[in-house]
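Hi U.,

Before I forget, here's the chain from the pilot set. I'm dumping it here mostly so it's searchable later in email.
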Amino acid sequence: MEWSRRAKVDLREPTAAMVTAAAKSGLVLEGSFAGTDAKGGPTCATVKVEWKVGTA
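Structure:
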């Protein structure tokens, strides 16, 4: 199945504190979101991303 719709991620959402914490600790900034919509199709439009600092 080929999908032509795309999710848009706002990269202004991670806080400066999160970026600094990841950089100082040698960790990564990880974002996740639901990849499908309520009908089972691909998520499109701007999505709400859950950001966290984690290991690679």
